[in-house]
Amino acid sequence: MNVLNLFDPWKSEFCSCPVKYSLSPYTGCLHKCLYCYITSYIPKGFEARVKKNFLYKLKRDLKYADKSIFVSMANSSDPYQPLEEKMNLTREALRFLLENDFKVLIITKSDLVSRDVDILKLGGSSVSLTVTSLNEDLLHILEPYTSSPKERINALRKLSSSNIYCSARIDPLIPGLNDDFEDLKRLVEELAKSGIKHVIGSTYKVKPDSFLRLITAFPELKHTLKKLYFTYGESIKGVRYLSKAFRFNLLSKLKNLVESYGLTFSVCREGFKTLNSGKSCDGSHLITNRFKYYEGKLLTAL
Fold first, then answer.
1. Which domain holds residue 65?
2. Which residue, 94, 102, 178, 292, shows the most beta carbons closer than 10 Å to its own?
3. Domain CATH code at residue 179
4. Phi/psi at 108 (5° precision)
5. What is the DSSP string of the chain?
6. How far apart are alpha carbons 274 and 267 in whole angstroms?
7. CA distance 217 to 172
8. End-to-end distance of the chain based on CA atoms, in angstroms?
9. pLDDT digits (tens, 9 = 90+) for 165-196
10. What is the spatial distance between Cα 191 and Cα 132, in angstroms, rounded to a whole number?
11. pLDDT tens across 237-294, in order?
12. Beta strand 21-23 with 4-6: parallel, antiparallel or unpaired?
């Protein structure tokens, strides 16, 4: 079985991602975010485990891979979840990929990614770090086992100061939880200060299991969310979306806010390509060329 595969987001007509490989060292994710969709298709999705013979299989798969296609780590399981701290599979995979001239986009919610700044700063990579809110009390419930927002912002600052181009994902936007304009303004301001170049925004999409987790944790929102998603919302390939007008209005406000700080913006699986001002929707356009360093000083781009 391959561990490196072409990314195929359920053949969604809303997906505007460039062609890319998907790579996950782990199956399942210990972050246990309430809104996470992986529990709808990965058995025991919140029980993380190492993929058997992962590094061996990766090296085998790369022999037949196209180096013009970048590698996305990871799309269903955070590459820097708690298990990585002792297993180092993401670190070793990243080192091997970059040493063999593959380009890599890291997608994570963890500040642990900054541990690998020594590898990332050599070029050929970019980091996209999700920061859904600055409200620590909210995230303690919503994303119970992730890094705090402060830790994530600090990680972005550390990466950016090492000439690693970064993007941030404000994803998902959930009505009544993290969609307040003033809160978003403070978040975008902090993200801009950290040195990022691009922001990806996306609204929460309802799957039955994740919705049950949300309304159990936030019962005061049960009536509102049911109305927004099941009365006024729409079903797209078995997934409940907010209404088109609601989504467009919310994401347009976020776009204007993001661009007022000189950053580019895109949406993820929303069907509004006109809102995208970045060269890619996923931030992969920020992947730098590989650079040659000597005693910490940049000599030349390769």
1. 4-301
2. 94
3. 3.20.20.70
4. -155, 165
5. --SEEE---TT-TT--PPS-EEE-SEES-TT--TT-SGGGTSTTTTS-EEPTTHHHHHHHHHTT--TTS-EEE-SSS-TTSTTHHHH-HHHHHHHHHHHTT--EEEEES-GGGGGGHHHHTTBSEEEEEE---S-HHHHHHHSTTSPPHHHHHHHHHHHHHTT--EEEEEEEE-TTTS--HHHHHHHHHHHHHHT--EEEEEE--B-HHHHHHHHHH-GGGHHHHHIIIIIS-EEETTEEE--HHHHHHHHHHHHHHHHTTT-EEEESSSS-GGG--SSSSSSGGGPPPBEEEETTEEEEE-
6. 9
7. 16
8. 34
9. 999 999 999 999 999 999 999 999 999 999 99
10. 11
11. 889 999 999 999 999 999 999 999 999 999 999 999 999 999 999 999 999 865 544 3
12. antiparallel
Is 228 within 8 Å of 244 (Cβ atoms)?
Answer: no
Q: Which amino acid is at 77?
A: S
Q: How many CB atoms sit inside 10 A of residue 290's CB?
A: 15
The total number of structural domains in the chain stands at 1
**Token pair listed for 264:** 């580019």
Q: Please say if the pLDDT value at position 297 is more than 50.
A: no
Q: State residue 250 phi and psi, 5-degree precision.
A: -65, -45
Q: Which residue is listed with tokens 């970064």?
A: 166
Task: Give the Cα-Cα-Cα angle 4, 208, 111 (nearest 5 degrees).
Answer: 50
Residue matched to tokens 């700080």: 261
**In the structure encoding, which two tokens stand for residue 261, read together?**
């700080």
